[in-house]
Amino acid sequence: MLTRCGVGGLLLYDYDRVELANMNRLFFRPEHAGMTKTDAAVRTLNEINPDVSLESYTMNITTVEGYESFVRSITGADGASRVDLILSCVDNYEARMTINQAALELGQTWMESGVSEDAVSGH
Fold first, then answer.
1. pTM across the whole model
2. Are residues 19 and 50 in the same domain?
């Protein structure tokens, strides 16, 4: 949706790979099975709007290395935030709390969104 609206840029983080089970709730296609989710997302989003700047990071932000990379990617050289919003679409509590910690440390606005596996409920 953000890509279709022409948002300036997106930073994408995920360490997982696309599985056929993901097809019911994400924009992935069967030919993406086995690709990293970030690479598949960049491919699809570039097809939707090639003018959006996309940065892809295939790593787990709950590790020390992943967390440090995440914080570096959302802060500029002057230490100020270079993003307007962190939109979290994670599927586990640990990652959610990691994003919350980074947002608190940086004074950054963030929002959580998701849908259940059967797409009947969400948050």
1. 0.79
2. yes
121 inside domain: no
The pair phi, psi for residue 6, each rounded to 5°, is 85, 30
Range of the domain at 82: 64-116
Q: Is 108 helix (H, G, I), strand (E, B) or coil?
A: coil
**Residues 39, 58 contacting (CB under 8 angstroms):** yes
Total residues belonging to the chain: 123
Radius of gyration from C-alpha coordinates of the chain: 15
Q: What is the pLDDT of residues 11-48, one digit of tens each?
A: 888 989 999 888 776 788 999 999 999 999 999 999 99
Which pLDDT score is estimated for 91? 81
CA 67 to CA 99: how far, in whole Å?
A: 9
Q: How many CA atoms lie within 13 A of 44 on its CB side?
A: 19
Record the tokens describing residue 70, joined without a space: 């995440």
Task: State the first-to-last Cα distance of the chain, in angstroms, to the nearest integer.
Answer: 17
